[in-house]
Amino acid sequence: MPKKKKNPKKPMQRWKLYNISGNKLERKNKFCPKCGIGTFMAKHKDRIVCGNCNYVEIVKEEK
Questions:
Q1: What is the structure's pLDDT at 47?
Q2: β-pair partners for 50
Q3: What does each C-alpha distance from 58 to 43, 44, 49, 53 come to in angstroms?
Q4: Beta strand segments in 1-63, E
């Protein structure tokens, strides 16, 4: 059997998780309450998820 090719892993682009306004540095995403500071949660359409511990917060749509 031929060997499978491995896909190269993309490095995390942490600069995309912060916003600069004046002299302040603001986070775009929130940190995970279980994992602590340093683990960002991913924003999806209907939920916010931690990729490390799989903690999920459901976001209700406002109509």
A1: 92
A2: 41
A3: 10, 10, 9, 16
A4: 18-21, 24-27, 31-32, 36-43, 47-50, 56-58
pLDDT tens for the chain, 63 residues long, are: 788 888 888 887 878 888 998 899 888 888 999 988 888 898 888 999 998 899 999 988 766
List the chain domain ranges.
30-63
Decide: residue 40, CB within 10 A, 0-12 exposed, 13-18 middle, 19+ buried: buried
Per-residue pLDDT, 58: 92
State how far the Cα of 20 lies from the Cα of 28, in Å rounded to an integer: 10
Task: Provide the phi-psi class of 57: left if phi over 0, else alpha when psi is between -120 and 50, else beta.
Answer: beta
CA 11/CA 16 separation, integer angstroms: 12
